[in-house]
Write a structure and sequence with these properties.
It is a single chain. The protein is mainly α and about 425 residues long. About 60% of the residues lie in helices and about 10% in strands. It contains 14 helices and four strands. A two-stranded antiparallel sheet has the order 1-2. A two-stranded antiparallel sheet has the order 3-4. About 45% of the residues are buried.
Amino acid sequence: MLYNLFEYLQTINVPGAGVFQYITFRASAAVIFSLIISMLFGKRIIAVLHSKQVGESIRDLGLEGQTAKQGTPTMGGLIILAAILIPTLLFARLDNTYIQIMLCSTVLLGTIGFLDDYIKVFKKNKKGLAGKFKVLGQIIIGLIVGISLYFNDDVMVKQKIMQYQTTDVTEGSLHSSEGGERIWKETKSMKTTIPFFKNNEFDYAWLIKWTGKDYKNWAWIVFIPIVIVIVTAVSNGANMTDGLDGLAAGTSAIVGLVLAIFAYVSSNIIFSDYLNIMFIPRSEELVIFMGAFVGSCVGFLWYNSFPAQVFMGDTGSLAIGGIIAVFSLAIRKELLIPLFCGIFLMENLSVVLQVAWFKYTKKKHGEGRRIFLMAPLHHHYQKKGYHESKIVSRFWIVGMMLAIFSIATLKLR
């Protein structure tokens, strides 16, 4: 909204109006504004949640300090959503396809999480939204995102290709090359980035190359299901991570910073040329969105750090996980998700391994056995006697290490 206003002010030569043309300025403004929203208005939202008695119902798992959390307001994800959406609406270009996809995904994912929290809190149903409906909602959102990224004509990449100059050797059509130069060419492609490889591009269409020469026209058959799986998996991974004060918000802020860097270099023709990565036109507005995302997560920590005054609930955790997934897909970095979202992956895997091993040993030995003292992984360390804040701090450190390694993959091939 403000972009259009300042664009008009620039046409009438208002001093300083041109600063709004710079992505770095608008991204910085989005970060600051999201911090202000979460820190200042967050207190009011918490007070409203208190007045509505929107408290967390804690199931006794025998963990230290667990009973003290009883009654702490939940649905604090509303703070995160407001701190993402408002700065994005103010500072980003709303006619940008990528921004439209991110805004739509954020609202829809937040709605699923809100319904889950609403049923838990107001309907007094501890199970919340039935798992099948939650997954169905994630599948529908993944379908919308996949269709938008595949069929929208504004979703393109630019790559350098070799163009040769040719001259006629005879009066016929025989040509010979006199030399060539590499030029940028915008193409509709479903290529993505493979980390650690020199020629690090993978086209999803190659998976169905065996179908015939027109296989590229049917790449959506592969691409859209992959999008659905990624959106569902990462949003659930963030949900699993939201079990300790500040864990999910802090981890997501670190991941968001990595994605903001990826978006910036991918949208800048100079950096993308130097790093030999795909140049994604019109994706620079995503830096503003991710700036708001990082600011909202950091601002939420003002109230969510130990001891938490509010929990994000599924309203926040499902949304932030889905945002990370959709954003990664938009900038063609989804194959790096297991690396920079390593904390989410470990939390998810700990639950899967725990359940699978328990069922296997119960069937084979008649008695279920466990790999971890408790799953997800952060509860395992709680059972071992580590203090909650120490677990969170160490998970953040691991997240930072994974973030640095992820950024290093831009040149580490």
